[in-house]
Amino acid sequence: MAAAGIESGPVDGLAGPQTRIAWERWQDRLRGLTPRAAEIAHQPDVFPRQKDVPGFYGEPGTHQAMLDLPFPMRLAWDKGTVIRRFAIHEKARESAARAFAGIRAHYGEDAIRRLGLDLFAGCLNIRAMRGGKALSMHSWGIAIDFDPEHNPLRWGRDKARMAGPDYAPFLDIWESEGWISLGRERNYDWMHVQAARL
Question: Is 123 within 8 Å of 144 (Cβ atoms)?
Fold first, then answer.
């Protein structure tokens, strides 16, 4: 992959997010796959548009705060590792805390685990968007990914687990706090919610 100009990160023996993303880029090269844009639903104006993120949130990676979780989560690429908190932008922290509390209240810990809603795939990660040069919303700690194994970047509603009816309340809770689901908005990257409008 390196010879093709695709960064896959250091070889560590784990099939984590970097490996999965590099594989998707390789597949895109081979198939010329382009995601089909879905109709854009109404987006609340709680948070800025992506183009206005730097002015609202500041420099990438700054103004981070720790978010304590109301239920334990597992790293999606190393399920034996449990996390109880993670770094997130201070302006998105309170809404995310309310969303996680709402998810726990709605589902309970057993259903959260059964549905894979406890599989954390990252928040703060200063990097470019997949397949582009612009910075990812993860660079500001305003995007959270869940269960990438069952919701890969290029999967649409026909395959992504998070597109199923059991997950509708999960996404409704995030949207009630002003977060955007890329799955619902664009029918790809169903694992991803962000505190920025498209």
Answer: yes
Residue 1 covered by a domain:
no
pLDDT tens for 71-107 read 999 999 999 999 999 999 999 999 999 999 999 999 9
In a domain, 3, yes or no: no
Q: Report the range of poorest mean pLDDT among 2-11, 122-131, 133-142.
A: 2-11
What is the value of pTM for the model shown?
Answer: 0.79
At 131-185, the pLDDT tens digits run 777 899 999 999 999 999 999 988 899 999 999 999 999 999 999 999 999 999 8
The answer to whether residues 157 and 130 touch, using CB atoms and an 8 Å cutoff, is: no
Any domain includes 147:
yes
Alpha helices in the chain (DSSP H): 17-31, 53-57, 90-114, 168-176, 182-186
Rg (CA), the chain: 16
Contact 154, 33 (CB under 8 A): yes
DSSP state of 41: P
Strand 78-89: give its sheet, edge to edge: 78-89, 64-75, 119-120
Q: How far apart are CA 167 and CA 119, in angstroms?
A: 14
**Distance (Å, whole) CA 111 – CA 113:** 5
Query: What is the distance between the alpha carbons of residues 124 and 138, in angstroms, rounded to a whole number?
Result: 5
171 occurs within a structural domain: yes
User: What tokens appear for 34 in the block?
Assistant: 């382009």
